[in-house]
Amino acid sequence: QAAASGRRAASRAPEAHNVCRLLTRRARGFYARDAGVAHRINLGLLRKIICQESTKFKNVWTTHSASPIAYERGRIYLDNYQCCISSIAQEPRILYQKPKCSKSEKIEDALLLECPLGEMLPSPSDYKSSLIVLTVQNWLLRLSADSGEVLEKIYLAGSCCKFRYLSWDTPQEVMVVKSAQNKLPAAARQASIQQSVLFYLAVFQVLPLSFIGMLEINKKIFGNSVTDVAVSNGILIVMYSMGLVRLYNFQAISEQFMEQPFDLGHEFNWNGQVGVVGKYPFGLPCNIKITDTPPLLFEASSLENAFQIGGYPWHYIITPNKKKQKGVFHICSLKDNALAKNGIQEMKCCSLEPDWIYFHPDMSGRIIHVGPNLIKVLKLKEVKNNTEQMEIAEDFTIVANRENSVSNAVTVTASGRVVKKRFNLLDDDPEQETFKIVDYEDELDLLSTVAVTQIGADGNAHLDFHCNEHGILLKSIPLLESWDVTYSHEVYFDKDLVLHIEQKPNRRFSCYVYQMVCDTAKDDECSSREKTERVFCKKGGRIFEYI
Prior knowledge:
Blueprint (H helix, E strand, L loop, with lengths): L1 H26 L7 H17 L4 E10 L4 E3 L2 E4 L4 E4 L6 E5 L9 E7 L16 E6 L3 E6 L5 E6 L7 E8 L3 E6 L6 H5 L6 E9 L4 E9 H4 L3 E7 L2 E6 L3 E6 H8 L9 E4 L2 E4 L19 E6 L5 E4 L4 E4 L9 E6 L5 E8 L9 E4 L7 E4 L3 E10 L2 E14 L10 E3 L5 E3 L13 E8 L4 E10 L2 E10 L5 E7 L8 E7 L2 E8 L3 E10 L5 H5 L7 E5 L2 E5 L1
Antiparallel strand pairs: 1-36, 1-38, 2-3, 3-4, 4-5, 6-7, 7-8, 8-9, 10-11, 11-12, 12-13, 14-15, 15-16, 16-19, 17-18, 20-21, 21-22, 22-23, 24-25, 25-26, 26-27, 28-29, 30-31, 31-32, 32-33, 34-35, 35-36, 37-38
InterPro entries: DCAF17
GO biological process, one term: protein ubiquitination
Keywords: Membrane, Transmembrane, Transmembrane helix
């Protein structure tokens, strides 16, 4: 009996050991049946399907609007967010349609709010996507993303300031509401009345929505030449008219200068006023009073206040603060301001639109530099035999297809006459293929580019997907509608969806929705630029056209 008991204990020992290993791997994110692992596998399969030669993207429907069109996570918003359409269905499906709002209810800005993972929330509605909107009358509303129902209302302030902008300090965690710059009326300026407060910032924790504090940016503290201000990743960024950018620790400021914390919906007595926090007519108290210049973290001077931080170890990108240096980018160490080896990047292109540069959003620390016909992906690496210095090296390049472009300055006619060109084409001449948009699809790990060639009134554009690691071209999708380079364009690539929003003159907006199809019999229909038969239908008072 003792021997049998010993054998059972011995047989359970490896099982217990395996359970411990499984729990340890799960804690580290290696559990094979975890939802996150399954999601990553599904996205990997979707990427393979998208990049197959037989997979096409079909323009399933199109709509037009007299007001701006916005897109957020499978939802298309029209009529100043009064109408929401699902972009998932092959035919337009209106999620909600509200009555036309008055000018006093106009929405100035909006942010999509997603449910945080692994947290207990006070209300069942908090577990669904919602839209935070800011109205012209200083109301902050949280709306259901699927029904438009008002879930929460917060009154920010009276007529002392006009809040206009929403942004993330920490995405999906901390939100910042910024006012327009305070400017005195002409009569007040003529009367020599001084205006010391330039901006107001209200900061909120989201889901559940809670008030952190409101502060003012005062010229007595930060100087007279402040032109703009922002809060990002816990840093207060102050910009000046002479190109100077200064960084301050926002958390340290809020802790040092917070006069009193307040909770939304609670009664308060503040500077002789009695009211409820976030309710009309009192709004929110300005409870962070900066009375002295806070400690400076960092400052830099850059043309047009262009300043970016990223990479590993930390580096920043600026343009020397001289007009003739436009298009020249310096990549420097944040630690000691040392210029990286090969840290001066310049395309040396002659174009109407400038090239642009930014840190890659995939958190790899790489840098993307986009010119009219060339995209360079750069990386930071240690200088050989000098671990203290970093150098900029080329990871890969993507080159526009300009095989048909004629660059010869001298041509000979059939009769033998020599003709010399009086001018050279610009690098971004519409008749040559030119990069207009570069973006990154994080869930599929694909780098997307939009390249355009316009001859006369007809412009042809195509959306290309490149391997994010090596830059190899994996897929090219023609956009069937004509692309006018003089118009404003936005292109969204969201997994199996491509969306093209176009702004034409006289505030005319168009939205073209493409969806992935794998039926090889429809190849010609999906890729042909010839006009196909379209059906027009009216839903919710709006006309849609689809194939």
